[in-house]
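ok trying this again, last paste got cut off
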Amino acid sequence: MKHRNGLIILFIIMATFGCKPDPLEYARPDNLAGTIYQQLESMGTFNYYLQALDKTPYKEPLVKGGSWTVFAPTDDAFEAYMTEAGISNFEAISQDKIEDIVEYSIVIDGWNTTTLTYFPARFYLGQSFRRRTQYKTPNRVFDMDTLQHIMDWDKLEPGKYIVDASLGRFKTTNYFIESYMEINGVEKSDYDYMFEGETFNDGDMKVFGSNVSQQNVVAENGIIYALDKVFEPKRNMYDNLSSPEYGDKYSMFRKMLERFATLRLMGDQVNEETGETETIYQFRFSTGIENDYLPFNPFDENYATNIDGTLAQGWGLLAPTNDALNEYLSGNSILGEFYSSYDDMPLEVLGKFISPFFFNNYYDICPSSFGQSYDTSLGLVDFKAEDIVDKKFCSNGFFVGVNTVYTNNSFGTIMGPLLLDPNYSMMLQAVQDLRIDTALQSKAVRFSILGIRNDQFENIADPNSATRRITVLTDLESYDPTDVSVIYMKVEGDPNNAFNRTYPDPDASSPNAADVAYVRKTIADIVLNHIIDEDVDFNANTYYQARSGEFVYTSNGNLAQGGGDLEIAESAQVEKVQTTDNGNFYEMSDAINVPMNFTYGTLVDNAASFSSFVEVLETSDALITIIGSSDKLINFLNLQRTFTLFAPNNTAVAQAISDGVIVEPSTVNGLDELEKAIAKRDLLNFAKKHFIQQALPTNGKVSGTFPSMYFSKIVDFAEVYDQFSVVNTTSSISITNEETGESVTTGGMLNILSKRVVIHEINNYIK
């Protein structure tokens, strides 16, 4: 055991002291590049930059190791910088500026001109044009006396607030390399336009508006790029609005943006310089899923996408001057009709007004995109070179000052009056709930809107009931025309008074969600009866189908009637017409009422002509009882669609009985069970044959071939309906069975409007 222990000790001694490597064999090669700091020293043209490094904590890591990319200004660059800034010598540059310049010149990890264009974790050549530097904007103090227009200002105590101006982000440096520009369609002329006085030639690499005179200088711990300019950290686009070089030129647009801003409490933080604990806030803008007033935050260094697109993308922002904004509002603009100041505009209106100035990509407002510049909402903006008064590539995108105001489809189209006039806030909310607001902004289609003001939702026929009428309570103390989140609606005329009450309950501690949804659905259904997808001629004395599927009759140059109005011989009158880019908005004296009755009730009301056809429907078991109402539904009609009933009058039904097509309905119950079943089937088919699957008033517009509700065969499990050719004029409609060639022409009463069904009288039955 003693011998074994001795041998072990001997081996340890030999391993430790007896096997040293040859120092020359493992010595550092003479031709190995030095660290970044050493390389800069050996290159001989970076003395000022080295002195700057010596004054910061970054000298040591650049001397010793790590992995870095350095965008280093040459001595000539420093000389030019000092001359331009009026600085007599290097020692006169403040310590704060030295630290800013150094931090803004250093990027973590070593990147060559190929890997600089990789999008991190994807490794796609030409995707990236940015890297985050070591510079983070220091905290600043905001004085609430100068920000009384920001959101929730009244919830903050007056005074000064310490704000994290970086939002926790590092500023990026921006570079332009040919592979990136080719992939993204950024022309060399685009670069020359963004950085006036600079020219991008083949093989160039640029950092902002500087030329990279030496690329890919390899050091032991990273890569060096030599710049011919010195850069202090760039302003973000929001801060650039108040750049001293512009004076007060963009103060109105800045204030507009600030109306969407708020101070958000972030908590306490120890100040490393003073050792004191400070309460810190962040300056936030209303963007994104939470609140999409603004397409993006011009104060934020990050590009907002589901993934971090900051290194690959940069925003574009057009900023109108004060003169342009004043001239637009005081000129012949639709906004000027409703507002004398931008400060008076609700945030929703203001947000839509400024949306044409926001672009997803900086190159969307470069020369290669002129004439096809689409804003973040994909609206085409008429942006031209002659509009430009200022340009600046900022830390988070491209800023361009313009001497004009660009408008979008929100206000110039038929949506304008809804968005701008608070008297139509309920109609606007319904349009937005229905998600048809984007469609109504299309200039490819013509529209007509019969405007229904908030105070006109009074005693209106409920589109989904045979008896109910509704009234919106605008006289409540809680009523606010600018806030339609909760609307109180009184219901009357419900069968047996079962549901006659106010929805939601005004006395409840909080509104019932189901009641709120019911109110909004009812109002939306009413609003659909006031929107027509074509131009309306009030002199034509004809019928137009609204988006509800119901029809509106216009006459005498200024009158409009729905089916419910025609029943009681009342009408709404046009009070004012607003002409827009895609149709007319008519301010009406009253709401347009849909028919109160369903088809059965309408036929009963006209029993002198249709009592026999009513008996056909009743005997064929084609009806569904509506509880509490004498009206009934027809069970083979899906009233999500619209139909035409060519209703055979009593003479026509008598002829069908005489011809043996159907039996006398009153005799059916006396038949045996088989005969009764056959008789009811024939009666039902007779009824179905007279319903055409298309709404056809006599307006002379819609002709063609349409199916009835009758089918005699099934192919591949699908009903094959009889087809009818229709010729529609302004005085009559004729229909022809395409299989038999038999024709019938309307005669007697025309255009009797019931819910979802237009009824015409015919003197003969359809064969």
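PB: full thing came through this time. DSSP finds 22 helices and 38 strands in the chain.
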